[in-house]
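User: Show me a protein chain along with its predicted structure.
Assistant: Here is one chain, sequence first, then structure tokens.
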Amino acid sequence: MNSWHLAIQSFKHYLPVNLAIALGVAAATAVLTGALLVGDSMRTSLRDLTLDRLGETDDLLISRGFFDQSSMRPDNNQELAAFWDQSVPAILFNNGTVETQDSSQSGIQRAANVNVFGVPNEFWQLDTSGISVNELSGDTAIINRALADQLGIADSESASPVTLRIPKPTQLPAESALGAKRDLIESLVGIEVVQILPNEGLAGFSMHQSQLDSPNIFVPVQMLQDSLSRSALRHKSSSEQVNVSFLGRTDANRAAAADFQNVLRELPRTLEDEGISLKRVTQTFESDGQSATVFDYWTLSSEQLVLLPAVVSAIEETFPGAKPVFTYLANDIRKSDSESGIPFSMIAAIDIDDAFPLRDVDGQRIQPPSEDEIVINEWAANDIDVDVGDSLTIAWFDPETTHGKQTKQEATLVVSAIAALTEPYEAFEVRRRGEVVPAKFDTAPTLANDPNLTPEVPGVTDAESIENWDLPFETASKLRPSDDTYWENHRTTPKAFVSFATGQKLWSSRFGDVTSYRIPAKTERSEIQTRLLSAIAETKGASGFELITLRQNALTASSGSTPFDVLFLALSMFVIASGLILVSLLFRLTLQSRASEVGLLQAVGLPAKRVSGIWIREMLLVCILGAVLGILIGIGYAAAMIWGLKTWWVGAISKPIIDLHIGPVSILIGFVSGILICVGTIFWALRSLRRQSVRGMLAGRIDESASLPNRKSKKWMPVAIVSMLVLAVILSVLAINLSGDAQAGSFMGSGFCVLAAMLMFVYSMLERDGESNSATDLQQLALMSLRRNPLRSTLTIGLVAVASFLIAAVSSFRLTPTEQGTAGFDYVAQSSQPLFSNLSSADGQTELLDATLPPSTRVFGFRFKPGEDASCNNLYQSTQPRVLGATQDFIDSFNAEVPAFAWGGSVAESDAESANPWTMLNRSYDDGAIPVIIDKNTANYSLKIFAPGGDYVVHFDTGETVTFRVVGFLSNTILQGSLLVSEDSFVRAFPYLGGSRYFLIDSENETDSAQAVAVLEQQLGDEGFDARSAPRLLANFMSVQNTYLSTFQSLGALGLLLGTFGLAAVQIRNVLERKRELGLMRAVGFGKGRLAGMILIENGWLLGTGLVVGILAALCGTLPHYLFGDASVPWVALGGIFIAIFAIGIVASLLATRILSQMNLLDSLKA
């Protein structure tokens, strides 16, 4: 008979006993498998949600500005069709505001930061959800349920018309000198809601991945085009302008669009699509039948007035001979000793050389001016009566504004020459749509007669009168009749010239330092366009287009920020541990009950190694049976966990989006892992056979004393106990001076030391011989029974104690909002549109609100780069978190003794940085890295950054690649989910994002704060200003961790309960093992009731001691944290859990006594 045959026969013979062990294996396997299935289910659910929202959309082509939609259709060009099968041009704004009258008609319901989609009806062909969608036409809209709920709209039939507010596209950056700071919103009123779609399919589309639903509104693209083409886009050659294109590819084409540079090179775009103007500038003069060319060149300029530095690089690399021009608006040009001068004049910074041979009034070639010299034209020289050698003072507004305020600058330059300027006999004429008819000359004009040295700026260069300039500052009061005459005759012709280097020195900004390039006319238009578009495609950051690989990015993000399989394995560790200990205990009892069989096998000549092998084979069969059962139970366990995540523990995932998905890989891993760990547990328990005597086993005894500590080690037990207690005291004392997680961890370590000391004390007491005079005879008998195997009894107590300790101690990590989490701020606000005034100043409040806030109110505005929510509320893996730019006022505010945010670590090096870690944001690194501060939870869980000092590189969809250097961690604050940098760093990384969209608000009292917020929301409703209570926001963040703790407690209680039933199973085995002993006791006069009481006392003593030890150790760990830290312990809930567990354990113990009462113990004596 071979070993396997013997193992199989033994497995069948002892099937009832083996089934008990298999159930323990099933418990461990079920939890392993269930945890893996929960992780699978979360990832698959996120993936399904992602694919549902994308429909057939694969990529999104976005533009910095607007482009002609006709060029982006596959049916119109072969280049596009080579990459994508479907292309739907559209208009997309991620920061719209929608408002409507509420149902009572007594107020306005408003939703901010709404995704606004201007789409054609074929857009819905990309949807795969199967939802029927109404066609859109005229002033109609479709909204999703998320937006409808925010607006309080129950159904489309009862919906009042809505007003849609979108950002008005601007050519000039709002924070440039000429950029508009007000009237930046386009309002569309009286839009009828014709359908409300569920938050499924494309109706739930969002650029930033989150399981939460985004508020979306869909309107006809024609409606937005008509509105914008009458205002912000009136300068475009076509009215069919869009800023995005939704792109879909078949599987065959998915790899074709992988290289964006190749895609961009092939896109059928124009320079106008890239926001660049190419214009032929020609000035001829006909005299005596002969036509002479004064100047003839191509000018390249930008819609945004200043060319992007990357575009400048592309132009200079492609056309080395191109001549740069930097034209700037001077507020005043005057003689240095005069009070008055010429208001609002163009000054061109251009090098005077062979390519631009400017001549003076005497016809002589003007020499290039030095850095402190200026050339003034003939008209200006006559107007303010200056001559060569005179000093001129020029004044201008700084090219960058600060919080909407213009800063005036001045420079004094010496006149080096006076350039000749010819007066026309017929002035310029402005026709409809801003078309300007050139002036006519009867005398030859000069190179200085060139208004095209100034790029076109709608609202300025096309204005009929200088009084009609559309500028963010007042001009009319300073103008003179002569200034308007100059405008009529010369338009934007510069009145002065400086060297290009001087212009860069005076007017350079983060937006650039070149307004146009002059390219010789000998080059053909087509050549310029082809070569420049190719160069732009090759130059990083030059193109206005970016291709977002939506599907690829979204599927990567759907891997999740939290590995739920690992999380639930950790949360369920005591269920697994309980199962394994139960397997070990049951196997040991089985081994002891079959000791005579083992002894017989060895007595007839089988080697101990082969006997062990037979047992391993038999237990392998048991483990396989248990693992099969565990897989089935594990699926149910996973379903129960998912149900819990959708109900009790929904705070952990914010929205019940998870469904059960059964993955074969997880099933296989769970099956194999369950078998391996259980076989390993059994193998570990089987080692004791090597130390047993055959004679003892033949007598039915297995001596476990071999595994007990020897006499020498017993002497060290008091020393170990005292050492553990001393270490616990040291950790508690150290923890008083710590904070946050460090403090909680120290107190937790202190509790563990107390737990270890108490378990060692219990073991030493069980091992001690002697009687207890204070106990009854029955109690003495029960205690003596437990002392027969002190190690087993201590392990059993330890299982209950450790589980009890962790269930109680982990509660100390429950979080409640604190002042250190809010830094005393009462509200957190966000606006749809940027605000450019300082709301903490009275002037800023008056300018923006037409009102003032309570005097004690502070409003700190942050620059805002939209991105993904990287807080623990977002289940998706964040790769492009939002960025906040903190002002210097905010940073400096923490220099004073004021409430401050809690810190979780920093790289502060000086006393000043340690006193105010926010000042680390002002650091400068040679490699260009940007200092950043992140909340610790965001860093650890979402961004996988575990310590300050490292780098975090982000590739933004808008084209920027930024290296952030982590200089500090905040700890559990309202600033979770964002990267915090200084304002200076922000504008360096994102130069075209102006104004503030994120705000922290506080006052001396809550009443003033509430009043301030009411005013802000009322006056800034069009801008989508929306405030939230800071403590409630913090509580929302903390609810995630608290929910995980509740989950841990629930699963820990389940493990403890399993351990309790294990105790009952062990006690039943003990009763069966001790039949002869109990029979003898029955024969000498013990009644069944007394024997049952003894068994109940034994089990109750084990259970009770474990609970008491665990709870006392937890109290030692949590009480200091409760007194000196931020612990918030749910004492009542914990008390209920432990009382219920103890009660269930006693009920389970009664099963053992019931078996005892049904046994014929006298018969056992005969056996």
